[in-house]
Amino acid sequence: MRYIWRKSAIALIVITTSLVVHGGRNQGNSELERDASWLDLNEDFNDPHTDHRSSKQSSARQKTSGDDNSVDKRDRAPPKSPKYSSLSAKAVLERAESVLEAINEKGCPTAEENLFNVTIYTADLRLAATTSQVYINIYGMVYGVEESTSKIHLTNHNMKEFTRGRVDSFLLKTKFVGLVERITIEHDNTGVLPDWNLDKVVVHDLKLGTIQTFICYCELAGYENEVSLPPI
């Protein structure tokens, strides 16, 4: 009788142990699965390429992200701003010709020199012309330090310079001032009609290839015969 109870007790212990072991394994497996799913979720969340929107939005995105409709491969329209618009072939040719003419006339600038084509637009207004001598200073930045040219007399020895509605261009070889950041332009209040109505100044740096416009639209008269202009 004792032998039978002993065998029954051993069998019960074995069954209980197996249940505990299998239960622990199942619980461990479920915990591991939860941990794995959490890790997968985090990996998806941290992955910048994972789309977390709804499946409908994701499928729509996938339809529009094919080879033919890829955002990177679409033809983008050129910017409308004239500041960033590309030059026509004719304009590029004219610019190249002006550079060659300047080099032929003034010589090729050295590393310490700039070559500018400065264009002055006198207003097309009554009494806009001036009989004064006109001067310009060009300012730029070189390694964080402001540099400037000397005061340059703008003249081509033409009696019609700075008359009403006239456009005058001047080739200037100066010291190197880097990218132009501002200019000052003035006249010396001489002649019969010294007051001058200036529309704008365009500075073409033939060395760096930049073209900058400086808007004035004001009258330089009397003691206010000088103006400092930033580029637009």
From TrEMBL:
Pfam families: PLAT. InterPro entries: Inner_ear_hair_cell_LOXHD, PLAT/LH2_dom, PLAT/LH2_dom_sf. Residues 114-232 form the PLAT domain. Residues 43-87 are annotated as: Disordered. Keywords: Signal. The keyword RNA-binding does not apply. Residues 1-23 form the signal peptide. Gene3D superfamilies: Catalase core domain (2.40.180.10). Residues 64-78 have a biased composition (Basic and acidic residues). Coiled coil: none annotated. The keyword Signal applies. This is PLAT domain-containing protein. The lineage of its organism: Eukaryota, Metazoa, Cnidaria, Anthozoa, Hexacorallia.
